[in-house]
Amino acid sequence: MALDHAILVSLLEKPGSGYELARRFERSIGYFWTATHQQIYRVLKRMESDGWIDVREVPQQSRPDKKEYSVAALGRTVLAEWLHEPIEPESVRHELAVKIRGAAFDDPAALIREVERHHHKHTERLAHYLAGERRDFTGPDAPEALDTGEELQHVVLRGGIAYERMTIAWLEDVLATLRRLGTAP
Amino acid sequence: MALDHAILVSLLEKPGSGYELARRFERSIGYFWTATHQQIYRVLKRMESDGWIDVREVPQQSRPDKKEYSVAALGRTVLAEWLHEPIEPESVRHELAVKIRGAAFDDPAALIREVERHHHKHTERLAHYLAGERRDFTGPDAPEALDTGEELQHVVLRGGIAYERMTIAWLEDVLATLRRLGTAP
DNA sequence: GCGATCATGTAATCGGTTACATGATTAT
DNA sequence: ATAATCATGTAACCGATTACATGATCGC
């Protein structure tokens, strides 16, 4: 399981509340690991009672108070241990591919709209990643020399960009194939 | 949930036993949807009792008898309904990316071996996909004209090939970054 | 007033993983 | 003998998803 570790990494990058973590899982960390606030609160509670993280009540005016979590010594140890364990390359779960193969027993043309929708979403996501890259790493407002953490965040983001570009090109291949099957059956 | 639907697609492509399905989930369908035999037997039992699939006991000599499943009319309907529902583009779960960002709080060089291992595995997987493509779609023993089902299987396989190539290139980027951080900190 | 944002949770369900279990046949 | 392959399951656990739930403040 890696949600624990994803949260530890995020809290090491910057301490924060459950709510703030949930927001980060909609961007940044969320580009390669998803989690909802329900999951996050549950894991935070468990990690706190196990002594992996510390809490600090932060009173706020004009906003509800929040609990700011930060990584405790034990959490750092647990993360370091996990970092040294080998993991298996992920097994892919690609629902759209199941649909594409299923289209052989339905109308392939009926899938075109759906594939176009996915193409659109991935194009948006790519634009979003590229904007983030310009803002944080390659643009005029980015730091001139990146530290280790920033270099690593950048290489992960480059992975996301490469993934979106590959996916967009493949979806275009899928669309061409579906159209060909529709026009000359 | 799509395991149901992945099994229906696979059974439409060719009826078979739980064991045979489990084998297909190690190749073919398994390239984009994973499942273990335990899962498969459970789902087959449920789909049978719901009338989505039919069973036929096949006695075999010199091998244990098997149950051959095929898709019933109801199963085809259920699949067709699912094919017409929109789905959301998958949220990525990339454990290695969590590790890479975590390496900022550990020794980045310690990750090099692990990334090399992943690079090796993805290179093997790519070779395996390419061999399958030559065998079934582009080689001299492949059919000259592909039918709709084969065209769709091919475009899905091309997606797997594109994914592996992209991943291999990215892992090389990661390695170069980790080495740079190691030599000039 | 009302919707959006900030902030934190509980409960039910479900799908996936891991471990356990059995038993026949074929090839070395 | 024994390891590998064929063949089918049960049980426990755990993580993820979905639905439900509360309550404050800010801007329109």
Automatic annotation (TrEMBL), chains A, B:
Q: Which residues form the Transcription regulator PadR N-terminal domain?
A: 7-81
Checking Gene3D superfamilies in the record gives: 6.10.140.190, Winged helix-like DNA-binding domain superfamily/Winged helix DNA-binding domain
Q: What is this protein called?
A: PadR family transcriptional regulator
Outline the extent of the Transcription regulator PadR C-terminal domain: 92-179
- The source's domain of life comes to Bacteria
Q: Which InterPro entries match?
A: Tscrpt_reg_PadR_C, Tscrpt_reg_PadR_N, WH-like_DNA-bd_sf, WH_DNA-bd_sf
The UniProt entry, under Pfam families, shows: PadR, Vir_act_alpha_C
Taxonomically, what lineage is the organism? Bacteria, Bacillati, Actinomycetota, Actinomycetes, Kitasatosporales
